[in-house]
Design brief:
Elements: H1 3-8, H2 20-34, H3 46-53, H4 57-70, E1 73-76, E2 80-83, H5 90-100, H6 112-118, H7 146-158, H8 173-187, E3 196-199, H9 201-213, E4 219-224, H10 228-236, E5 240-247, E6 250-251, H11 253-259, E7 265-268, H12 282-295, E8 298-303, E9 327-332, E10 344-347, H13 350-364, H14 369-380, H15 383-409, E11 414-416, E12 424-429, H16 435-444, E13 450-451, H17 453-456, E14 461-462, E15 471-475, H18 481-498
Parallel strand pairs: 4-5, 4-7, 5-14, 7-8, 8-9
Antiparallel strand pairs: 1-2, 3-10, 5-6, 9-10, 11-12, 12-15, 13-15
Helix pairs in contact: 2-4, 3-4, 6-10, 7-14, 8-14, 9-10, 15-18
């Protein structure tokens, strides 16, 4: 390439906020990588370059210095500047590669284990955009005392006291001590602070357990239908997912024991089944613990929203009945505080603590320390308990409002499921409707609907035909009673049009 051609091919934009020397650097680098400037080619002297492009000589020198530092150019004073001969002839090499073989698709270059993480059968959703009726599992952020939280967090920023370096992979000890006291009082959980492992949300907890307790092909029992975050984690671990039906008493333990005697793990939501909302009976809980004892099954108790039980005190946990250290308790603070906090925890049997802490350290060293420090103060100063008490009352009123509105406007179309607590309410179709069409129609009028079929789409082995309990899961916690009334009216209009 002639020098004049080399310079003519370079374009600089003086209106761009990027400095001219960075633009020149990028243009020369691009020409080298594209093979338009070959190894050994001499570049124009800086004076000639600056005159041709009408830029300062210092701009050219700065661009050359950056390219020299990164190894694209070589040169010395008085000898000139050249494209580094040690660079391969990229253009020629790429042509040879294209002619000899087609590049592999990207998916073929991702490991089989990695492909499990992105397989749509194991996917989990996340909220997008502003909250709308009836977004599921969403607390009302307007009820959270962010002013208090900000004050507590600022205090640690002003006086870090050496706490903001790398920390214990298990989590901030003071927070674990406070959680142990809280869990014992509120949920009957039997544990020492040392048995608690702080995680980046309950999703990381489920992923850790799936990875550490299962080999590819091991059987993992789940409820049918169930939380998609659970099946996503198990699918990523290449587990053989075995769905077991639920009824008014929770998961059918006899069915699970008869069909999957060699299961390694069972994930359950005994206090408030996700998504249908029933509570596992005491008889089923005892049968589940006996099966775990006899067959060496790990029971994972996902206690995702037990703080919100309406009309009675929160139930004692399944873990509180366990005498064999078979139950692993999973908790989250996303529903009680706010989802963006990303704080969860595991209460582990003593024999699992060391390996799980080591695995946590491999994944991310430890969960972010500042939220842990702030939460510890939030609990210690009584704000946590007051916030739960306040929101429990508000959410109970909102659930009652939703039920009343549904019975008034959609009595012929929907029947309400269990109403013991939580942030969401399962409703079932009285007539045959296409869930997807209902959801799409809802989007057009500003409603965010989630079909129960979403939770029945379980990858892996099914213990029964994959028939969805047709209906919707309606989130109500983030809506005022007035918003609930307006949104149910919209929903009624939608169903009338769908008949």
């Amino acid at each position: 390439m002639h020098i004049s051609q080399m310079i003519a091919g370079i374009t600089l934009d003086r209106q761009n906020s990027l400095p001219l020397y960075r633009q020149l650097y990028a243009e020369i680098r691009k020409a080298i990588l594209a093979g338009r400037m070959l190894p050994g080619m001499q570049l124009p002297p800086s004076r000639e370059f600056c005159q041709s492009l009408n830029i300062s000589r210092q701009t050219v020198l700065n661009a050359y210095d950056q390219l020299l530092a990164e190894g694209y150019l070589r040169g010395s004073v008085g000898q000139g500047t050249f494209v580094n001969e040690e660079l391969p002839a990229l253009a020629d090499r790429s042509k040879a590669m294209v002619s000899s073989a087609s590049p592999k698709p990207v998916m073929d270059r991702i490991s089989k284990r990695g492909q499990q993480h992105i397989d749509p059968r194991g996917s989990t959703r996340f909220h997008q955009g502003n909250a709308r009726a009836f977004r599921v599992s969403m607390p009302d952020l307007d009820l959270f005392p962010f002013d208090i939280w900000a004050r507590l967090e600022a205090r640690h920023c002003r006086h870090p006291k050496g706490q903001l370096g790398y920390g214990d992979p298990a989590g901030h000890l003071v927070l674990r001590e406070l959680l142990a006291v809280y869990l014992k009082a509120a949920r009957g959980v039997n544990c020492a602070p040392e048995q608690i492992l702080i995680t980046s949300g309950s999703q990381q907890a489920l992923y850790l357990l799936s990875t550490m307790l299962l080999d590819p092909g091991d059987k993992a029992v789940v409820e049918y239908p169930c939380y998609r975050g659970t099946t996503a984690a198990l699918h990523a671990a290449q587990a053989d997912i075995c769905a077991v039906p639920v009824d008014d008493e929770g998961m059918d333990v006899i069915y699970a024991a008869a069909h999957y005697p060699d299961a390694k793990i069972a994930v359950v939501t005994p206090s408030h089944q996700m998504p249908l909302g029933m509570t596992m009976s005491l008889q089923r809980r005892m049968a589940l613990l006996e099966w775990a004892k006899s067959n060496a099954v790990w029971i994972v108790e996902d206690d995702y929203d037990s703080e919100y039980r309406f009309g009675s005190s929160p139930l004692a946990s399944l873990q509180s009945l366990d005498t064999q250290q078979s139950v692993i308790y999973v908790g989250t603070l996303s529903k009680v505080l706010f989802p963006g906090l990303r704080l969860g925890y595991l209460v582990l049997p003593e024999k699992l603590l060391e390996p799980m802490v080591q695995a946590k350290a491999v994944i991310d060293k430890h969960t972010s320390i500042m939220p842990q420090l702030t939460l510890a103060d939030f609990i210690a100063e009584g704000h946590f308990g007051r916030h739960i008490k306040r929101t429990r009352k508000v959410y109970a009123e909102r659930q009652a409002s939703l039920v009343t509105c549904l019975e008034k406007e959609l009595e012929d179309e929907l029947v309400c499921g269990a109403q013991d607590g939580g942030l969401d309410l399962a409703v079932y179709f009285k007539q045959t409707y296409d869930e997807e069409r209902i959801i799409e129609a809802g989007q057009k009028i500003g409603l965010e609907l989630r079909g129960l079929g979403h939770y029945a789409d379980v990858p892996g082995k099914l213990s029964r035909p994959a028939v969805s309990p047709g209906g919707l899961l309606l989130g109500f916690a983030s809506l005022t009673c007035a918003e609930i009334e307006r949104s149910v009216s919209k929903l009624a209009t939608l169903f009338k049009a769908a008949r």
